[in-house]
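The protein record quoted in full:
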Amino acid sequence: MGKRDNRVAYINPIAAARARGPVQNSGPTIQDYLSRPRPTWEELKEQLEKKKKGSRALADFEDKMNEKWRKELAKNREKRLGDKERDKKSMDKEDKKDKKEKKKKEKKKSSRHSSSSSSSSSSDSSSSSSSESEDEEEKKSLKKKRKRKKSSARRASDSSEEDSDAESKNEKDRRRKRKAERTYKDSSSESSVESIGEEVLNVSYDF
């Protein structure tokens, strides 16, 4: 069994294309694109203005939708306003009821106070004099307490001043003692020096 010959003949693609000849173009060429019909400047302006204005159908559709939305908004507003008015009316009714109840309670209290005041008017006349005397006694006791506080504060300040004076005197005495000690030491040292000098002189005279 021999090997198969899988070799294929090589064909130069460029030579094959030249042998086929020119290819027929089915689509438009570059020259056709360059020589196409073009609009004038005025026609182009008209087209731009039409684009700015937009289509009439779209404008009509937008107007219809706006009308629908306006109607729905008006309905919703009416509903909300009606609900608010109802709430206000109910609140006003409740406020009126509360006011009436408060007035009734106040009338009852005033009637009770009037009855109690008529019964206590006689006792008030007797208690007023006692209350006045008690007020006078309290005022007197307060005045006495204030005087005591002032006197105690003055005594405390006087004692503090006396203490400060005593401390200052003690310090002065200590300083005087120290000065006296220093002067005594100085005088004793001078006398010792003089005695030593005299002894030295005596010794020299003896020689």
Remarks:
- The two ends are 163 Å apart (CA to CA).
